[in-house]
User: Fold this.
Amino acid sequence: MAKPIGPACNLDCAYCFYLEKQALFDSGENFRMSDEVLTAFIHKHVEAQPTPVVEFVWQGGEPTLLGVDFFRRVVELQRSFAGRKIIRNSLQTNGTLLTDEWCRFLKRHHFMVGISLDGPHEIHDRYRRNRQGQGSFDAVMRGMKLLQKHGVEYNVMASVARETARRPLEVYRFFREQGVEFIQFVPIIERLPAAAERELGLNLAGPAVLDREERNTEVTPWTILPEEYGDFLIAIYEEWVRSDVGKTFIMNFEWALNAWLGNPCPVCIHAKQCGRSVVIEHNGDLFACDHYVYPQYKLGNILTDDLTQMVEASLQTGFGIGKETALPRWCRECDVLKACQGGCPKHRFAQSHYDEPGLHYLCSGYRKFFRHIRKYLRAITTLLENGHSASLVMEAVKGPLVIRPGAGAAGKQNGGRAG
Ligand code: SF4
Ligand code: SF4
Assistant:
């Protein structure tokens, strides 16, 4: 993941953990990745990948502040270093600066766009405002409509703050009405800063300590409450499983099914170990992960250090496997561990019921959700194993369903057994 404009953004969202990172740089910093750093990064990243497909994720702050020409240069450099490799690009944006010109570019070069939209007007504007305090909803919607008009592949990333979590169906139905097909829900979790973070000029706490009791557990007022996150996902799942399977793709649900089927999780938070998802700042500094952009987690710099060695060092020094080895007993004995894997270490600041440190803040919500959907995952797995479409689960939830193995279709019969 690259942050070519560092933490700089045209919005000032209340819950953002990127913006405050400006305090970690000199006051005169312009946060624009130089051509020297960009060239070194693209060259080294393409070269370091053993796979035929190389992925780039462009994130901010707000990367569109750099203008289309910056990304024209990105594509030009990627072409010159790609050789026989295929390059894929994703761009995470708040959508407010998108134009026809941007969308033509994104479409032409097959960028996958993630657009940040939290829900209908009032819900979105509660936290996502500009520096003048004005909501960004209208500008984001204009951006999303442009993406739709130009046929750019996109998904919606919806942050779920405390108030949002209490209005699950309003959020979900809004996205459906807007024709959004791919959605990812991201729970907002932030703690108030401890003395060490305050000294650095930060307003939010950094990653949790896992090996001893975390004293600093006070969360911000917009942080979601654990059980309410479970309830939020459950309410949406209950509606989705009745009417939208195969039409709307909710990444959080796809990951759970994936885990149930025994496949590795494509997203790090529910994977066994932290992946190789290193992040590069605009000045070439490399960090182990987007959640760990703090001076003590710096791996090196792209201009002076070897990329492969920096990544290996991060994995071997415990960051990668630490996610699994630091799991408390409460997690290791948990009946939904396969789907949850203990969540992101940054947010493991709770004490478990065995009074151990390192339990994820959202544990009770995760548990509630994964336990609740087990019956549906079982049904979907049975359908898939018998050669049917997962969308038949929408019939199964209405009543008894008989599945004929390998028939490619299922008959709903009174008195039959549920699939
Ligand atoms: S620390 Fe959290 S966000 Fe970072 S790679 Fe691990 S699970 Fe993912
Ligand atoms: S639900 Fe809770 S106990 Fe179970 S794996 Fe997740 S965080 Fe650990």
